[in-house]
Amino acid sequence: MNTRNPRTGEKDYFFSAMPAEELAALCSQARSAQPDWNENGLTARSAVLQEWKLVLQQEKTALLEALQQDTGRSWETKLEIDLLFSSIDRWCKHAEEFFEPIPTKKTQIPFIRLQQDWVPYGLVGVISPWNFPLLLSLIDTIPALLAGCSVIVKPSEVTPRFIEVMNRSISKVPELKKVLRYVAGDGTTGAALVQEADLICFTGSTATGRKVYAAAAERMIPVFLELGGKDPAIVLPSANLDIAAASICWGSTANAGQSCLSIERIYVHDKIAHEFITKLTERASQLMLNDRDIEEGEIGPIIFDKQVQIIDEHLKDALEKGAEILTGSRSCELINGGYYCRPTVLVNVNHSMKIMQEETFGPILPVMTFSNKEEAIRLANDSVYGLSGAVFAGSVEEAMELGKHVTGGAISINDAALTAIMHEGEKTSFKLSGIGGTRMGAAALKRFLRQKVFIIKENVEPSPWTIQLQRKA
Ligand code: NAD
Fold first, then answer.
1. Alpha-carbon distance 205 to 227, whole Å?
2. 211 lines ligand 1 (CB under 6 A)
3. Which residues make Cβ contacts (< 8 Å) with residue 254, sequence separation at least 6?
4. Is the pTM of this model over 0.85?
5. 96: CB partners within 8 A, 6+ apart
6. DSSP state of 81
7. Side-chain half-sphere exposure of 424, counting CA atoms within 13 A
8. How far apart are CA 325 and CA 311, in angstroms?
9. Pocket flag, ligand 1, residue 166 (CB < 6 Å)
């Protein structure tokens, strides 16, 4: 399979998708190694992950190069790699807290007590997208490994270069290699993995999520879906407008808007709209493309060329329906083979436009005004998605009071898109943004475990119900 370089447009990387029989054999190997991995205990599993962290640190340059070629951007890639190292430590700590010995429990029957236990699923299949290839291939993998499962990861075919580095690093830790592998391939390989695994963690579009959900239902295996978003930000009159403009600009344009949790809709109270929009436009207009030098400029290329059509279509639809551009451009630009989208502030937008309804996945900042809190809440919730959102106000209490009414699993207060950085808060995705328990915080470990109970009779007397049966007989 040929892979396009997002900076040059050249198909300069070739890889072979793993054939279905090879995938089946690998899955079976990983599943048979899982009981030992689990039996070895959490301390041993944490030690293996710490050993892998050291190997990954040695591979940092190779990983950075591969990911930069995959995505065409720099600072987000460095952040992704840094977050990987800190996330291994964080998950080891969460797992230690989570797997504290469970005391036995008394029951209503005095001579019976309960001992709870956790039983991990065998093989977890992780299927991930192209927008944060490293982070999203590991966000479920690390807790699944710590929970005692083995894992096969199938990253996106759009960003496959880093797979080689990951597998090389895994090979250097023999205990890990038995229970973790990355496989290359497209949707066909992803679909084949759904047929092999005992549990699926899928991150990607809502459209593919539906297919994965249906295939998992046929096999009656659990599936966790983390899907698209259309996150709103609400700015109340009491908010600090410099902070709101700076945070929202970051939340909308980081990774060139290619994040599920990007701020894609901005609602501002009409009393402060002019001042806020001026500040937001000023900030957005200062951001530069990184087309000349990957280390200069905040805005990288659009990673996946098919996404360009969606961004252009949303812009065209908005402009035809009366939207006005304050800064930015009418469509993506082709520069030296790479597609770039300038941060674009739009006003005169409304909910009849695709730009306010469908996931755009570009650095577009459409702003609408509202005149009271009820209207702000109604507009924010007028979406098929419910991933996350942001509220800005003069006090935390005021922002939280409004945030309680916004449909979504994580609401940033007086900042935007904080789930990009803060992975400790437990949250679920609402509406079409996903299904399943939290993927963040210690409770995320529960997704990979089944519960088992030992029901223990403590005395040596026959139980009253067996005595009754004996009498009847
Ligand atoms: P996608 O759905 O096209 O692909 C995601 C993965 O699924 C890829 O690895 C792909 O090869 C695989 N796949 C495709 N067809 C499959 C099938 N039938 N069975 C199994 N696997 C299959 O998504 P994308 O374009 O790579 O990613 C962008 C989307 O991901 C956006 O909608 C974005 O919002 C979403 N996303 C969500 C989160 C979140 O946490 N909620 C995070 C990042 C991205």
1. 5
2. yes
3. 76, 262, 417, 420
4. yes
5. 42, 46
6. H
7. 7
8. 14
9. no
